[in-house]
Amino acid sequence: MPTITDSITTPDGTCPVTLATPEGDGPWPGVVMYPDAGGRRPVFDEMAEKLAGYGYAVLVPDIYYREGDWAPFDLNTAFSDPDERKRLMSLMGRITPDKMAADAGAFFDYLASRPEVSGTAFGTTGYCMGGRTSLVVAGRIPERVAAAMSFHGGGLATDDPGSPHLLADQIRAAVYVGGAENDASFTPEAAETLDKALTAADVEHTIEWYAAAHGFAVSDHHAAYDADAAERHWKTMESFFGAKLG
Fold first, then answer.
1. H helices within the chain, ranges in order?
2. Quick one: pLDDT band at residue 182, thresholds 50, 70, 90?
3. Which end of the chain, N or C, is less packed with Cβ atoms under 10 Å?
């Protein structure tokens, strides 16, 4: 799929992005794909190209752009190396819901300005912390998100005041959550809390479980990647965005 490298001016600086599109002239619905805690790297450009092949213009942002020239993470070792784990958790912790929303506003403005992109409401999808970001953005900028997806997302329904489930009454998007059965960051209890919040707010939503571990959809996370679960996630994304974004 054709992919360009660009940058977007946000309230906090300049965010490098890639934009993958189908072959042809378009325009196509736009989707923001939020990376996992490892940040933007080649695997996410590959995933964006695959999603673009279903008929979407897919933006992948450098979520850690505020850190400058940050060193890439290897998720196969980052959590077992104390120094890398500390660095990773520090970077993750600095991306607050306010920053997620401010960045998303700039991303959506960029998509709306592109001749390859149609419409004024977009899709969001994300993995791990990106799955949480996808739902936070749907609640913080509801008029600009038509469909929001989260795969092995963590922290979706917690006691944290920034928890996405507390934004349920603001969400206008259709929501899909694909949880990993083996994932302490999104438990059945958390799923029940999220489901109740979305149901009470009359949000169209689906919460499903994948018989896999946290990280199942991202192929360079070797210990967690599950080919069957990943394929199911692709088919689900194709059908969900197809129904909600056109």
1. 42-52, 82-93, 97-113, 129-140, 188-200, 227-245
2. confident
3. C
